[in-house]
């Protein structure tokens, strides 16, 4: 009878561990359309205590080279995000200037360093694009190195909304404009990145579950001793 009570207690603890509310950090969103205008070759974006750093660059084949100029665009709905100016000082600050977008030709690239994001416990990532259509997509790659384009994760457009990707913990995300037709028509923007923390049981819940299972094991040992003595 006593064993049955311990088993029921353990099952109750397990049920509590599965259903109990968990203390989870709120999602954070990095909006890449602010600051606006011509930026440097890199720009840091901070939400709370977490920072993402963006780098401008280009690519050839699977090789990435940093060194162009970022540009923040805020032209209203469907025209907000981070692009590239292909030569410092040659782009206007006007939001309607197509030269400030992420272009397919020449092959421009935006690279995000996610190391601080991972260090703060964020692992669930969603990406949002602007100016991307069915024939001009924002392609997303993940890489462990600065100079490698990496593994293709997804090709998205504005209709994709906040698109969830699995980075595999790789430090760098690379973004390029991918045309389905003429490369010169591919002009997109990196709109935003939203990060969240994977749900984990609270320490108190795990302790309760452990106590219940320990009690079950102890009761089982006593039952075996009694049986053996008989």
Beta strand %: 35-45%
Count of the domains: 2
Topology, number of strands? 15
Named CATH topology of the largest domain: Jelly Rolls
State the shape.
globular
Could you characterize the architecture of this molecule?
The chain has about 230 residues and is of the alpha+beta class. The chain folds into two domains: about 50 residues; about 170 residues, Jelly Rolls, CATH 2.60.120. The protein has three helices and 15 strands. The strands form three sheets. Strands 3, 4, 5, 9, 11, 12 and 14 form a seven-stranded antiparallel sheet that branches. Strand 6 and strand 7 form a beta hairpin. Helix 1 packs antiparallel against helix 3. The two termini are about 20 Å apart.
What topology emerges from the helices and strands here?
Blueprint: H1 2-19, E1 28-31, E2 37-38, E3 42-47, E4 50-60, E5 63-66, E6 69-74, E7 80-85, E8 102-103, E9 108-113, H2 115-119, E10 124-130, E11 136-143, E12 151-156, E13 163-165, E14 172-179, E15 187-196, H3 203-229
Antiparallel strand pairs: 1-15, 2-6, 3-4, 4-5, 4-9, 6-7, 8-15, 9-14, 10-13, 10-15, 11-12, 11-14
Helix pairs in contact: 1-3
Summarize the structure.
The protein is of the alpha+beta class and 230 residues long. It has three helices and 15 strands.
Keywords:
230 residues, alpha+beta, Jelly Rolls, 7-stranded antiparallel β-sheet, 5-stranded antiparallel β-sheet, 3 helices, 15 strands
């Amino acid at each position: 009878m006593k064993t049955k009570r311990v088993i029921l207690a353990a099952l109750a603890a397990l049920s509590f561990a599965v259903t109990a509310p968990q203390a989870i950090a709120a999602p954070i969103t990095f909006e890449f359309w602010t600051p606006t205008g011509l930026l440097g070759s890199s720009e840091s974006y901070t939400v709370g205590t977490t920072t993402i750093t963006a780098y401008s660059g280009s690519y050839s084949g699977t090789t990435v080279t940093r060194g162009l100029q970022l540009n923040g665009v805020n032209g209203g709905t469907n025209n907000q995000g981070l692009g590239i100016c292909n030569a410092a000082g040659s782009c206007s600050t006007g939001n309607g200037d197509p030269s400030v977008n992420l272009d397919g030709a020449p092959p421009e690239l935006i690279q995000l360093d996610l190391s601080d994001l991972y260090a703060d416990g964020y692992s669930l990532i969603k990406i949002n694009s602007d100016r991307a259509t069915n024939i001009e997509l924002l392609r997303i790659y993940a890489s462990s190195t600065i100079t490698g384009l990496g593994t293709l994760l997804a090709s998205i457009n504005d209709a994709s909304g906040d698109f969830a990707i699995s980075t595999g913990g790789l430090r760098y995300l690379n973004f390029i404009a991918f045309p389905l037709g003429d490369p010169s028509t591919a002009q997109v923007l990196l709109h935003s990145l939203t990060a969240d923390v994977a749900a984990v049981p609270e320490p108190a819940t795990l302790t309760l579950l452990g106590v219940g299972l320990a009690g079950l094991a102890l009761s089982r040992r006593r039952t075996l001793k009694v049986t053996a003595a008989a």
